[in-house]
Write a structure and sequence with these properties.
It contains two helices and no strands. It has helices spanning 27-37, 47-63. Helix 1 runs antiparallel to helix 2 (47-63). The radius of gyration is 20 Å and the shape is flat.
Amino acid sequence: MTEQPGEQHAETPGAEETHPAPTTGVAEVDAVLADVQALAGRPVEEHVAVFEDAHTRLRRALDARPDADIPPDGEAGTAPGAAPGPDAG
């Protein structure tokens, strides 16, 4: 196949095109998306830990009350400084 002047190939094999991480407007979710986006070009061995962390953080964001802050390392659905529930012992 001969390339004509001005003709462009859709994609070069092995070339990775980077795109900005999508945004949702939810800071916690956007941070997870950026971390996953940063995996492009990284060794596959590193992907598992990032995906597991992303899953945990997204679950926490989904479980949180919409009006509550999501604690960075706290229990999902518990606002920082909140009193322990009746099951706490």
